[in-house]
Amino acid sequence: MKILALLVIVISAVTFAQPQTFRSMSTSGLILDDLDRWFSGMLFTQPVPDRLLEAPGIRVYTGLSNLSTGTDLVFDETADTRGSFLLGGSYVPLEASFGLGVLTEFMNERFFDEITLFGPGGSPYLTGEGTVEGTWSEYVDTNGDGTLDSRHTVHETAEARTDSSLTSAGVYGAYEVSETLRLGLGVSYTTNSTEVLDEDDNRSLSIADSNLVTGVETYTLDSSGEGFSKDDRSSIEIALSGTSAVTDMMDIGGMFLFTSISSDISYEAGLSGTEDFLPGEIGVYDIATWSESENYAVSPGGSRFGGGLNMDLRIDENWILEASGGYYTASLSGSSDQYSISLDSSYIVSIASLIDSTIFDMNGSGGTEIDICDDLFSFGTKLTFDPSEGFTVSMGMGFFKHDLSNTVHNESSNTLVETYSDGDVEFADPDDYVSTTTWSQTDETITTESITRISIPVGLEFEVLPKVFARLGASPGFVWESETETTSLIEASPLVTHIVYGDGSEDQFIESPFETIDGTLVETDDNYTEIPYSYGVGYTPNDHIQIDLMGLGDSLNQWRLSATLSF
Amino acid sequence: MKRITAGIAVLLLLLLGCAQDNPFKADTVVEWEGGNEHPHIEVAGTESGGPGNFQFSDLDPERNGIQDAVILTFDKDIDPSTIAAASFEMIETDPGTGSVQFESISYYPEDRTAVLVGTFSDDTAYLLTVTAGSILDLPGNQLDPNHNALYDGAPWDDRLATFFTGSAVMRDITSPSINSNFPNTGNVGNLTPQPRVLFDNGPMNVSQLNLNNFTLVRTSDSSSVALQVVSATGSELVTVPVNDLSYGTRYTVRLSAQITDSAGNYLDTNNDGYVWPDEPDLVWDFQIIDDGTTHSTPPTLSQADLLPGNTSVRIEFEESLTGDDVVMDDATFIAANIQVTDDIGSIPIVFETGADPGAVNCLLQRIATGTVTLFISCNVADEYGNLFDGNNNGLGGTPGEDDWSGVL
Fold first, then answer.
1. ipTM of the predicted structure?
2. Domain B41-164 has what CATH class?
3. What's the pTM?
4. Domain of A312, in residue numbers
């Protein structure tokens, strides 16, 4: 299941979010700010760098811009300040025929999971985050003579955390070839890394029992495990765009985007331990030891490409009709035969003068194949009425369809060898044996998600006070969502055990009944209507700063602010 | 009406065509793996006499000679391609030594049976050898006639069978085995005992029943003791020491496994019915009793009890065979020699000796629960170093054989 969880992260490499301005977010995406025009592009699917030329001057997006997620609560001093930050800007000299844009994003964070340690009687005695460690003891008066006779001491550690980092940088340029044609080019690079230490994998346990009267240790157990799952991915994206003024009233634009994606997914875990019923007795054994490891690695790679078309029609001085359509498809695939699991354990016990031993040696290997497909198609039109500088209203209709599927194909085969010896040197000893057990399985999990949305958004912006604009937006829509997860058992063999005894006799048996889960299907199919509302305020105190607010309410703590500098 | 009926039929077909397919992409194919157990010939016989019968009888009187067939039944499915002439060698052993060619060789997988048809001569004995490694089962495993779960090659994994017609005598293909061996206890009172072995399934090759293959040594230092052969026949070998043996001394007798019977079959020393390439020599000990000057009789267990409260086990020792009191060596009361287990596992012990030099108290370091079992190693010793005699036969110190265990 870990690999499925990691896949979700990989998929996000294909569909990482585009930053939106507060102006856009508070008008249901209909009234766009400068950044939305050239970076979020057509229907928020791809950057359109040639549109840089639509924003002459200098725009600076600092930490005040709140662009990374748009959810930072700057007035809430108790809010977590962690997260990514986005810096950038655009520069289009006045009267020049070129423009430049830069956008960078950085994130480095560590999250700790809450861990609980349980003490005597299974009661929790420690809850904490990160690395926790505790020791507890239980003393017992075993013979009821009023003094404590035995001690049971437990020392336990556990660790759980998630480290994430993101670095993204993009450079975009625009050039006005002629009065009727402009072209744009953008290149960006993103690298992202996540490492998860799970509590179940990173844990140690030590138990020591002793006789308090004589001081003799009566039992010890030491077990420790370490493990992590890691996902490293990177992508390089190239975007080309162009806009042509077909007539004085109409512009037609198009863009093409290509992204190369690579990733490395791996999981490693190891566990070892010793349990000793005769601690401290040299040469005498009642001791079990175990050591196991599991790891797999797969490196899916792929690409995303697509494009879009846009038309802007200025019907008259106050009316603009826009129509856009975009499509992209992404695929990732990878295979690995690096899956392996091994287990070595032994149980050795002294029986009079003999040493009885049972040794287990298990080895498993296999491979994993991953195939991910991601397709998106969107189309929308909007009609914008802009009768004056203080009032803008826009209405539109949008169609959005997103299909995502991933297939994980797993193969594994395992062999367990058990070797038993009663420790004597009897020739052809029927008590001794070597047992070999084999089994294998191939299965496949296919997950699909599909979202189709038809929306009829409306947004307006009007000046309520000098230099203060109120914004409203609503986007009623019909949504169809479906998800399926299908698991299929492709091939399986039962446990087959072949035993060779010391006297040469052989025995063989097969797992019976051999029960298999041949396939499962989980399916959800939902459709509903939605009417998300949004609102905000924009304030432009002077020509060099624009302040946008969202989340306005009774509590100032919940206000969200974005400030953009322009020169 | 016909149109309505046809319309309904078309509609039904369309509905059936639209029925949801099985959503699971792949079929489950169960593959039975393993199968690496070696095959064996369960039974051999003749077509005329059936399984276990080795006399050929004429099934076709109109033809010259005796027409019959060898029947071999396997315990696993055999690769039919390996049931071929090259896998079988049939020779006359009485009176001639020539080889015999089978007229046809067939395999019937439904019965796992091979049928080897031939024409045989009257008053003739035959030896069939199924050549080692020639016949394979379906997973590719060779026959394992000596049942050691290994392929040893020839001659160990040659499968032999004998047949005859008329009054011919079949070759002896049975390995000789051990009927008994003496003396084998610790209370031998005679200073000139006669170490001897009685054989079954002989007759033995008497020329090999000599003092190169039969030796006597003093156990403590492996020094050789001179013997002379009293009797060497097809069924026994009897020897006697040249000089008197010593009181209170343990001796080890060894008979080589490399001797054969008169037909050349190797000795089956452990009497399991099969001869392996590493068949061990027959080795045993005996001990001359003590006189007034020696102290070689080992200790044995007199009594062991779990005391009330389940916190202590008391063990008392006595002299083996006689039951006399003994003085134990306290230094051998260690965890490596005495263990106590319960339902949880081994229990650490602190040993306590008291006024009785032949006893020890085992103080359990945690309270025993459930079934309590005591183990006493053969390495526990008395004051003279005589090792524990767990089976009370007067001979102590043999790992496993002289360990003692019991539920308290």
1. 0.84
2. mainly beta
3. 0.80
4. 2-566
